[in-house]
Amino acid sequence: MEQKLNDEQLVRRYLLGELPEEEQERVERQMLVDGDYSALVSVLEEDLIEDYVSGRLGAGDASKFERVFLTTPEGVEQVKLARNLRAYALKQAYGKSPEAFHGDSGTRLKPISLMEYLRSKTVMGRFALATAAALVVLVGWSLVAKVWQRQQRPDTIRPQLEAQLAEEQARNEELAKSLQQEQDRRARLEQELASSKNSKPEQPLSALASIVLSPGMARAGGPSNELVIKPGASQASFRLLIRKTSYGSFRASINTEDGRRVWSGPAHLSPGGGEVRLSVPVNLLPNGKYFIQLQGAAGQGEYQDIATYYFTVVKKPPG
Amino acid sequence: LSFRANGTRAESKVKKKPGLTKDSFDALLNWLHPDREMAGVKYEEIRQTLIKIFVRRGCSPAEEMADETINRVIGKLDEIKGTYTGDPALYFYGVAQNLFREYLRKPPAQPYVFKQQEPEEAETDDECLDECMDKLPPESRWFIIEYFQEDKREKIIHRKDLAERLGITHHSLRMRAYRIKAILKSCILECRKRKEDG
């Protein structure tokens, strides 16, 4: 088993063009005289191609792969077949019932919890809310302490304490008012969030082109997966629908339909779950067909594939 | 000469290369193996492996270079068949090495440039894939769809489960996928050619 594993690693290095000439010749001679070995090389080659089209190769290996496989028509054909087969299989699995893939839509549309709300706020917003809450607690505790002290002290200091108490009560009311304002703002945000999830399609700003994609759908293209980029747009925003997931963090890569990676980077789960978002400069996306490979962090630096999304970029000419 | 290629159900044909006589081609097959059927299998294995080797070395077009290697071996056959010892496949390798050095010294005037697929080509590919998948036996179609469902879970775990469900080893599972893909590839190439020819 160990020997076999070593062989597989050796073959993989051969396929990526990493072997020194002498070892490369050893592999090639063996391929010619041993049909089983040749079959093993072919099988591992298919594995490697699958890893490439599904975005499982690291950046270094992907680059080596492209140097070897995308420089001959035969290599490109192999990659194309693997990509099409994969897309076909995913379409068969998910294409007929996308709603099943989206999981529990009620979960996505339910009002967000306080913790989710806190997570969704900006750093400044979270700081303001936390400060207000901490002060309320502090003042409340201070009042309790003062009342307790008042009970312990002689009546001579009572007027002084009452004055202090009144002052602190006023401050407390002011802080409570701030907290109420913050809570009102939260309610407004929740309402906006819920209404945008329920019906309103994302309104593209002039500098933003946006699209919502379902996994594995519309490989052949169509209006539903066209990202229309108007003149002046600088960023493309993607909302990738996903099933309920336990992954804590995500990354994605955008690839041309022939498997060339044009962008990779982090992607972020929406506050309500149900979709992952990413933003990409539009200058990386000329007209053409693309697919996005979404991955989730599985721990220890490992990522697992979650889903593939297909889309077509259509750039509108100025005027 | 037609035969089943190396255990797959793909039907392959040994094609005589332009400029070769039937006698010289027969002589090559005789040199490879006394049994004509086995000789055909051996010939096709050597040719496919040579193509793979040239592809891995970035030679384009690899298929033509593999055929040129075979032509050169045939040209030398009278000289070597009485004296050469060992597996004939290794003689092909020596000739392929020489051809590769020539390639490096004089690369093609118009090297292959990767280009985006035209929408019409992509559409044809999609149609051909659908057509070829439909031609597969139901169990093969089910298998290949299931094999590629690794998005559901991690690939290794998914395929281990699939192998267990089918009662076969992981290696057999990969071989089965490889063979079905080979059938599909051949079918798609034929389909594409048919559509291009109108």
Radius of gyration of chain A, in Å, reads 29 Å
Radius of gyration of chain B: 20 Å
For the record, give the distance between the C-alpha atoms at the N and C termini of chain A, rounded to a whole number. Answer: 65 Å
| Average pLDDT of chain A | 70
Unreliable stretches of chain B (pLDDT < 50, length at least 5) are 1-14
- From the spread of the alpha carbons, the general shape of chain A counts as globular
Strand % of chain A is: 15-25%
The helix tally of chain B amounts to 8
Mean pLDDT of chain B: 82
- Choose one word for the global shape of chain B: globular
Count of alpha and pi helical runs of chain A? 10
Distance between the termini of chain B: 28 Å
The amount of helix of chain B comes to 55-70%
Strand line-up across the major sheet of chain A: 1-3-6-5-4-7-8-2
Counting helices, strands and paired strands, the structural category of chain A is alpha+beta
Walk me through the structure.
The complex is a heterodimer of chains A (319) and B (198). Chain A is α+β, with helices and mostly antiparallel strands and 319 residues long. Helices cover 53% and strands 21% of the residues of chain A. Chain A has 10 helices and 8 strands. Chain A has an 8-stranded mixed beta sheet, with no helix packed on it. In chain A, helix 1 packs across helix 3 (35-53). The longest helix of chain A is centred in the middle third of the chain and has 41 residues, at 158-198. The N and C termini of chain A lie far apart (65 Å). Chain B is mainly alpha-helical. Helix content of chain B is 68%, strand content 3%. Chain B contains 8 helices and 2 strands, in the order E-E-H-H-H-H-H-H-H-H. Chain B has helices spanning 22-32, 36-56, 62-80, 88-105, 119-135, 138-147, 155-166, 170-196; strands at residues 2-4, 11-13. In chain B, strands 1-2 form a two-stranded antiparallel ribbon. In chain B, helix 3 packs across helix 4. Chain B starts with a strand and ends with a helix. Chains A and B meet through helix 2, helix 3, helix 5, strand 7 and strand 8 of A and helix 2, helix 4, helix 5, helix 6 and helix 8 of B.
